[in-house]
Design brief:
Radius of gyration: 14 Å
Number of domains: 1
CATH topology: 60s Ribosomal Protein L30, Chain: A
Helix content: 10-25%
Structural class: alpha+beta
Number of helices: 3
Strand order of the largest sheet: 1-3-8-9-10
Strand content: 35-45%
Oligomer: single chain
CATH class: Alpha Beta
CATH architecture: 2-Layer Sandwich
Number of strands: 10
Distance between the termini: 20 Å
């Protein structure tokens, strides 16, 4: 069964379910997997960092609050933090005039990478950056991340 993750949302599942998120532009899709128990999770991160009021209202939108939530939900399904691996996609620059200060895609990628590194979760594959949107499928049964992009075709990682 396909489980859809909305913008600023996250979900976890066990194989053979499939996780999918649409409209990854500057947002970053973070797939986590504990292959030993077949538990996968996907977070559609909109922004790099929360503040106290935004974190309370919409914690799943931000890398710094969503990713700990994702890990916690996976652990409740039997995953072990020490077995997690990651695959990421998105973080595009969707507007040519985006300055370094406002390049949300790059800032999202930096926040996600920083979190994963600080939690010793290796990134096994990524399809990030450039200037186009992506749809991300994640298959916990095989660990495959599939990226579909209208003008770029399909890729598997």
């Amino acid at each position: 069964m396909n489980i859809t993750i909305g913008i600023g949302d996250l979900k976890v599942c066990k194989s053979p379910d499939v996780l999918v998120t649409y409209a990854l532009g500057s947002c970053v899709g973070v797939c986590l997997l504990d292959a030993t128990v077949g538990v996968g999770g996907l977070s559609h991160v909109m922004l790099p960092e929360s503040n106290p009021s935004s974190a309370a209202a919409t914690p799943m939108r931000f890398a710094d609050t969503a990713l700990p939530m994702l890990i916690s939900q996976m652990e409740r399904m039997g995953a072990s933090r020490s077995h997690l691996t990651a695959k990421i996609a998105g973080g595009a620059t969707m507007f040519a005039a985006a300055s370094d200060k406002f390049n949300i895609g790059e800032r999202n990628l930096e926040a996600v990478r920083r979190f994963l590194q600080s939690n010793r979760i290796p990134i096994l594959a990524e399809d990030v950056g450039l200037d186009y949107g992506r749809t991300q499928f994640f298959y916990p049964e095989t660990g495959i991340m599939e990226i579909r992009a209208a003008a770029k075709g399909n890729k598997q990682f």
